[in-house]
Amino acid sequence: MMTVDFGWPFRLFLLPSAIIFSAVLCAHSLYKNRYVDLWQPNSVSLIGWNATVDVHMKRRDTQRLHAALKQERIKYSVFISNLQQEIEKQTRLRSSRKRRSESQYDYEIYHSLEEIQRWMFEMNTTHSDLLNMFSIGKSYEGRPLYVLQLGKRSRAQKKAVWIDCGVHAREWIGPAFCQWFVKEALNLYRYDTAMRRLLNQLNFYIMPVFNVDGYHFSWTTDRFWRKTRSKNGKFHCRGVDANRNWKVKWCEEGASSHPCDDTYCGPNPKSEPEVRAVVKFLRKHKKRVKAYISVHAYAQMLLYPYSYKYAAIPNFNCVESAAHNAVKALYSAYGVKYRYGPASTTLYVSSGSSIDWAYRNGIPYAFAFELRDTGYFGFLLPETLINPTCNETMRAVKAIALGLLKKCHTDTDAFPYI
């Protein structure tokens, strides 16, 4: 049963530079004492000048927060006044969501891990000509880590694209997109020449839920859980940030060494079995995997390496052009604007990220999507926005994949955002 959480997500406006120092101290104190759950940015160290900060807190702590904000003259606005009501909208009528056939599966609602895995088995059975389901390992709590191989079977060695969703448990729109992508690709294969070409010439390895333990926990206990569910020998806090656990500048800037923090890097690189399983698979197929795509939320951004430093990657022009084309394709659906660029400068510096690891290990195109929105709903993106969000993201991923089939031609007039 989902834990009742009558909390508020809201945004602090840290505008006057004169109060930013005290505001950051205030945020440090609130976060240290676990009064607030940081949404954007996800670490106190990333709060800077003229910043806005999205946080969520328990209702019982609101008076304490009001007093602290008033004392520091920090402006704020409440985005959702009844958070529990919004949570229940996304988890209600669980029993009615158990579908017996693929034709009844509703892609415009969020699904539990069990429902997603049943859907994977069903799709694997009904689309065996284009789909193959397999496990690459087990999670900390012993759950299988399923991947779908999507593409026309061929004896020839085809280029491949890896797509993972649900690295951070509370980002439910990610797994919703991975399911949408599979459904749309299979449907479009019949009549869309571009999609037919993609599935004939490429293989897509799709992992709908990377962090299976955390995702399950976000459905049953804590809707805003982010990390994995591994235990720590010295602390009662559980879990590791699966996007700070990769062996590339591990546990440096943008990651925390404290097990209770949301950006905890883990006791060592690849400590999480989920990360180890994906690393092993990608290394095994490194000669064929040409693009790595990880789907996150929220911020409306398309990011590429480097995350851990301010520097241009060697094939910057080609990757920048691919990002530009993807964001342009996304914009063409509903006019939604996405920023794009190196993760370090476009979002923030973070070490031990999957896109940096993928790039360093020979995958020339490594991207991380931060899907809708920009803060109003945050991790509680309404189900009514699943369709448009997945539709526009589908166009972007399709543009990236089509780019792999031709030689890179860099657009020197690419804009910083559309």
Description:
By secondary structure, the chain is of the alpha/beta class. The chain folds into two domains: about 10-90, Metallocarboxypeptidase-like (Alpha-Beta Plaits), CATH 3.30.70.340; about 95-405, Aminopeptidase (3-Layer(aba) Sandwich), CATH 3.40.630.10. Helices cover about 35% and strands about 20% of the residues. The chain is built from twelve helices and twelve strands. The protein has helices spanning about 20-30, 60-70, 85-90, 115-125, 175-190, 195-200, 210-220, 275-285, 315-335, 345, 355-360, 385-405; strands at about 10-15, 35-40, 50-55, 75-80, 130-140, 145-150, 160-165, 200-205, 290-295, 300-305, 340, 365-370. An eight-stranded mixed beta sheet has the order 5-6-8-7-9-12-10-11, sandwiched between helices. A four-stranded antiparallel beta sheet has the order 2-3-1-4, covered by helices on one side. Helix 5 (about 175-190) crosses helix 12 (about 385-405) and helix 9 packs antiparallel against helix 12 (about 385-405). The longest helix has 19 residues, at about 315-335. It is globular and about 65 Å long. The model is unreliable at about 1-5, about 15-25 and about 410-418 (pLDDT under 50).
